[in-house]
Specification:
Length: 137
């Protein structure tokens, strides 16, 4: 079994906007380079801590799985812009914004553009196939 200390890359998620409308954070590497922003459901976010993440080639979204989240399964990084796009996974995008959600027809806290960030992360290999996610306050 691989230990977290054996994994080379560390990615940090620092939550900096916490509200009942969503949790937005900054995702950076171990050199302090900001990669993107994150968006989580306010009542279903993963606990602070360290998690092994692995590239996923078979799951629903096929980006990265976040393993060993207490009491949870099938937690992933994936594309999305609104809180309605996640039930506990972490969405990634470039910027935070207030935009109209077509599903609710309301102006909501959101992140955008999500798909472009995943393309950048994959094309520039900003995440290794296996890394440690450090969720910090």
């Amino acid at each position: 079994m691989i230990q977290l200390s054996d994994i080379k890359q560390n990615i940090f998620l620092k939550r900096d906007l916490i509200s009942n409308k969503g949790i937005i954070g900054i995702v950076s590497n171990d050199k302090g380079l900001i990669i993107c922003e994150s968006f989580e459901h306010p009542t279903k976010c993963i606990p602070y801590g360290r998690y092994e993440c692995v590239r996923d080639f078979t799951g629903k979204y096929r980006f990265w799985k976040i393993l060993n989240v207490p009491g949870r399964t099938a937690i992933e990084f994936h594309i999305g812009n609104y809180i309605t796009d996640t039930v506990g996974c972490i969405l990634l995008a470039q910027d935070r914004a207030f935009m109209r959600n077509d599903k609710t027809n309301q102006i909501e806290l959101s992140i955008t553009p999500s798909a472009k960030v995943f393309k950048k992360i994959i094309d520039k290999k900003l995440f290794d196939d296996r890394f440690v996610l450090n969720v910090v306050s």
